[in-house]
TrEMBL record:
Name of the gene: bshB2
One GO MF term attached to the UniProt entry: hydrolase activity, acting on carbon-nitrogen (but not peptide) bonds, in linear amides
Name of the protein in question: Bacillithiol biosynthesis deacetylase BshB2
Superkingdom in the source lineage: Bacteria
Co-factor requirement: Zn(2+)
Source species taxonomy: Bacteria, Bacillati, Bacillota, Bacilli, Bacillales
PANTHER family: N-ACETYL-ALPHA-D-GLUCOSAMINYL L-MALATE DEACETYLASE 2-RELATED, N-ACETYLGLUCOSAMINYL-PHOSPHATIDYLINOSITOL DE-N-ACETYLASE-RELATED
Length: 222
């Protein structure tokens, strides 16, 4: 993984960073690269409340905010931005105004690498809208001044339409940090983690590949 000047990560929900990019984030931080994570919402419309439930709809935003802070702490992220948008409404935001917010972040931080979702290939409308706003902001810059844009895609047709991911980061040296970040989002991951833990203990090949490898598509502008 190349040493970057500054990495900006932009996702709409708490826990978006944990599953697919937390090992990459942790590696950059261990390399001495500053990482800013801009999270648009608090995931207040999430359906998971723990099992047995340990919160309710009214308190879920507080829980998820605390979980997000804990995940950031586990990863070593010192610059966490919570942008205050509402869960499941990002797709309805004014596209240019949302891109303006992303442009302001890029202007302030001058990142050499930006990580977000690949618009159209990230399943959730909030994911796609966030990725589209980041793409629009980067595209506004002169070509020579644009940071590299690495996108996460996981729709069923992403490989068919985009080809294989051109960046695959082996993050096995920081796998425990990644697992800690996933665990931090307890309200969303507790149910699945017992199964994952058992498979990790048994060195299940599919789980090991999922944990140790993070894939990205470098966005290519027309």
């Amino acid at each position: 993984m190349e040493k970057e000047r500054h990495v900006l990560v932009v996702f709409p929900h708490p826990d978006d960073e944990a599953f697919g990019v937390s090992g990459t984030i942790a590696t950059h931080i261990k390399n001495g690269t500053p990482v800013t994570y801009a999270c648009l919402t608090l995931g207040e419309m999430g359906r998971n409340m723990g099992n047995p439930p340990f919160t309710n709809r009214e308190n879920l935003p507080k829980i998820r905010k605390a979980e997000l802070k804990e995940a950031a702490r586990a990863l070593g992220i010192q610059d966490l931005r919570m942008l205050g948008y509402r869960d499941k409404t990002v797709e309805f935001e004014d596209e240019e105004k949302l891109a303006d917010v992303m442009s302001a972040l890029i202007d302030e931080l001058n990142p050499s690498l930006v990580i977000t979702f690949y618009p159209g290939y990230a399943v959730h409308p909030d994911h796609d809208a966030t990725g589209a706003a980041v793409v629009r902001a980067v595209e506004r810059l002169p070509e020579a001044a644009r940071p590299t844009l690495h996108c996460v895609a996981f729709s069923n047709d992403c490989i068919e339409k985009l080809g294989e991911a051109d960046i695959i980061n082996n993050i096995s040296p920081v796998a425990e940090i990644k697992l800690a970040a996933i665990k931090a989002h307890r309200s969303q991951t507790e149910l699945m983690f017992a199964d994952v833990s058992e498979k990790l203990k048994n060195q299940d090949p599919q789980i090991m590949v999922w944990i140790n490898n993070e894939r990205f598509w470098t966005y290519k502008f027309d």
